[in-house]
Design brief:
heterodimer, A: about 400 residues, eight-stranded parallel beta sheet, 17 helices, disordered N terminus, B: alpha/beta, four-stranded parallel beta sheet, globular, Queuine_tRNA-ribosyltrfase (chain B), metal ion binding (chain B), membrane (chain B), TGT-like_sf (chain B)
């Protein structure tokens, strides 16, 4: 079925994305988001700074790495320090002193991650606070209200999220409820001129449910769409098929944000499938466990094999960590209680992700994206035939072969 | 060999310049001075990037042998020296045997010979005057580059009783060699020791302040303009009032170590305080962030709290040492001392 874009309801929707180049083979696109706090080149990886901080690196360091958009989380910030305080501090930008763009998640994902502490009804999600046992109701209206106070450039609808491993009627219920909640979010949104509300496509791993969700949500007047409910415990084979289905039905002139994806291979494949924006805690979290990301995978720097390795993490990396320090020094520092070790790796891993996206984008603009993909897979897996099956299939589905 | 040129001595306080430092012998260091405190060769919490946003970082960093000893095989194979290994190739380096923050019983210090480095002689002797004098005289006979006064650390009461020993010891030491002291880092104690002929100190105090979620706020502005005096007096009085109240609370919650030179950002009253840690401070934290933000980071256990507090506390502390040198230059150390003592209660 061809992409179903309904012209009448969408003429007035703001176009925040400008397409700069498209791959003639795959669905990959290079573009530019025009957001209140400045332009953002796409495809883009957005680091996650859940509680108004990027885990030990300063705003200045993050800016110097070239980051122009990062994430905050409504559930966490709504509890601590709370929307009233953040509003007094001139919004989340003012509170954390971040001059570029912010995207806030709605709190929906916490429904899955904190499932034992939450209860979902048509009204909203009731959470029991792990800190003081207090109960809070996060409704679509409440989520948008908090995000309005936070003032982030992109805000997410509250969606009814179920784990991708859940099957049965709950998935359908969540999909339809997400559509109803989208409408409630749109109605409650007080600042559409300053903050861009994105819809989140649900439907689990069921192609029909997803198609229905796509058809309904694309009738709504929103500046962008996220593909949600994936990147949980599902198989990669199911994962890519849902992503591909979603991008085939989403309008071309609006950004596609694939939530929770951040592994290098996944990023490259999903760009090929037509996604523009990504977020994931993986690179920053893995840094704090002593793992450095490199084009061939990762280096577990705490391991003895790096004790006398005097090379930088990656000789082609331009980040401050690689400019100044060796694997051996980082190994030694990781075995101490000096937190600087974690910050060195956080800086590098964010640099790695951003440099990867930059390289992807350049290859699309220069009309050599398929070659880039082949080189990338070759470096990562040694031989194109050793590339994971799901990735080979996904790429083949959009015309990129690895041999 | 490094050489100390004294510019002046006022009431036992020495102002001067150590020359012929570094690999090529062309570096200098003003005294009184503090060393940059490091853990495993890195300033705590700070990468090269964040360290270099701090103004007034000392020319010499302190490494602790205790944290580096386990890596000696690696360093031997590296062959290019510890400075380059830790990413501080331009820094002057002082290697102490112990980490002042992880205490070790005094007296367990032995000489170690390091190639191409200047050896510092250690003065021991416990609390016995005779032994102290013997240690000082004998060590002074050796061709050492300077002297480390060991065994004066402990709690504030301990130092007080040992100050008289300190004067006697430094009186036995040659004028033209620097005197370092280990384990003394509090602003009031630093001044007491400078008055008794000590030149170089460790900067672990700002690190300890950071680790308890506090920020240094004491004033070292010994000649403020009248308007600032009024503002600061109002500020200081308010702070002292609160400190007295909270000190009582603190002792019951086992946080007796907090001093009156700092504020505790975890306190609820900072939740909506949008002022910088210290008004007028030029550090990255004060120029970019508020007390409310630091409070939030501490309450949510975020790593950035340590980073920002360390940046502020180091800069504040290095500023204090700068003010000591300036005060000595313009013969105003008494004013500075009075200001610090007023805040030390």
């Amino acid at each position: 079925m061809a992409a179903a874009v309904n012209p009448t309801s969408l003429e007035s929707a703001p176009r925040i994305m400008r397409l700069v180049a498209e791959c003639s083979r795959s669905r990959a696109r290079a573009g530019e988001l025009r957001l209140p706090h400045g332009p953002v080149a796409t495809p883009v990886f957005m680091p996650v700074g859940t509680q108004a901080t990027m885990k030990g690196i300063t705003a200045e360091q993050l800016d110097a790495l070239g980051c122009r958009i990062c994430l905050g989380n409504t559930y966490h910030l709504g509890l601590r320090p709370g929307p009233e305080l953040i509003q007094k501090a001139h919004g989340l930008h003012g509170f954390m002193n971040w001059p570029h763009n912010l995207l806030t998640d709605s709190g929906g994902f916490q429904m899955v991650s904190l499932v034992s502490l939450s209860e979902v009804t048509e009204e909203g999600v009731r959470f029991r606070s792990p800190y003081d046992g207090d109960e809070t109701l996060l409704s679509p209206e409440k989520s948008v209200e908090i995000q309005n106070a936070l003032g982030s450039d992109i805000i997410m609808q509250l969606d009814d999220v179920v784990s991708s491993t859940v099957t049965g009627p709950r998935v359908e219920e969540a999909m339809y409820r997400s559509i109803r909640w989208l409408d409630r979010c749109i109605a409650a949104h007080q600042r559409p001129d300053k903050q861009n509300l994105f819809a989140i496509i649900q439907g689990g791993l069921d192609a029909d449910l997803r198609a229905t969700c796509l058809e309904e949500m694309t009738k709504r007047d929103v500046p962008g769409f996220a593909i949600g409910g994936l990147s949980g415990g599902e198989s990669k084979g199911q994962f890519w098929r849902m992503v591909a289905l979603s991008t085939s039905r989403l309008p071309k002139d609006k950004p596609r944000y694939l939530m929770g994806v951040g592994y290098a291979t996944d990023l490259v494949v999903c760009v090929a499938l037509g996604c523009d924006m990504f977020d994931c805690v993986f690179p920053t979290r893995t840094a704090r466990f002593g793992s450095a990301l490199v084009p061939t995978g990762n280096l577990q720097l705490k391991k003895k094999q790096y004790e006398k390795d005097f090379r930088p993490i990656d000789s082609n990396c331009t980040c401050p960590t690689c400019q100044k320090h060796s694997r051996a020094f980082l190994h030694a520092l990781l075995h101490s209680d000096n937190t600087a070790a974690l910050h060195h790796l956080t800086v590098h891993n964010i640099a790695y992700q951003l440099q990867l996206m930059s390289a992807v984008r350049a290859s699309i603009v220069e009309k050599r994206f398929p070659d880039f993909v082949r080189d990338f897979m070759g470096t990562m897996y040694g031989d194109p035939t050793l590339c994971p099956t799901w990735a080979t299939e996904a790429l083949a589905s959009v015309g990129i072969t690895l041999r | 060999m490094m050489k100390l040129n004294l510019t002046k001595v006022v009431n036992g306080c020495r102002l001067g310049k150590i020359k012929n430092l570094g690999k090529t012998g062309d570096r200098t260091m003003d005294i009184p001075a503090c060393l940059l405190y490091t853990k495993t060769g890195s300033a705590p919490h700070l990468t090269h990037q964040t360290l270099h946003t701090i103004h007034g970082v000392p020319a010499m960093a302190q490494l602790t042998l205790s944290s580096l000893a386990e890596h000696h095989e690696v360093l031997a194979e590296y062959k290019e020296g510890i400075g380059k290994f830790i990413g501080m190739p331009e820094s002057l380096l002082y290697c102490s045997l112990h980490d002042p923050v992880s205490p070790c019983p005094a007296g367990y210090v032995t000489n170690k010979v390091l190639q191409k480095s200047t050896v510092i002689g250690v003065i021991e002797g416990g609390d016995v005057m005779e032994e102290r004098l013997r240690s000082a005289r004998e060590t002074a006979k050796r061709p050492v580059g300077g002297f480390l006064l060991d065994g004066f650390q402990g709690n504030p009461a301990t130092l007080e009783t040992r100050l008289y020993l300190l004067s006697s010891v430094t009186a036995e030491l040659p004028e033209d060699k620097p005197r370092l002291i280990c384990g003394v880092s509090r602003p009031d104690e630093v001044l007491e020791c400078i008055e008794r002929g000590v030149d170089i100190f460790e900067s672990f105090f700002p690190y300890q302040v950071t680790e308890r979620g506090c920020a240094l706020t004491f004033s070292f502005d010994y000649q403020p303009n009248p308007e600032e005096t009024l503002l600061q007096q109002n500020g200081t009085q308010e702070e002292i009032k609160y400190v007295d109240q909270t000190k009582k609370i603190k002792t019951t919650s086992c946080n007796q170590e907090m001093t009156s030179f700092e504020i505790n950002l975890k306190e609820k009253k900072y939740q909506e305080d949008f002022d910088p840690l210290v008004r007028g401070c030029s550090c990255y934290c004060c120029k970019n962030h508020t007390r409310a933000y630091i409070h939030h980071l501490l309450v949510t256990n975020e790593l950035l709290a340590g980073v920002l507090l360390m940046m502020h506390n180091f800069e504040h502390y290095f500023g204090f040492f700068h003010s000591i040198r300036e005060a000595l230059k313009s013969d105003r150390l008494a004013q500075l001392k009075e200001l610090i003592c007023r805040q030390a209660s």
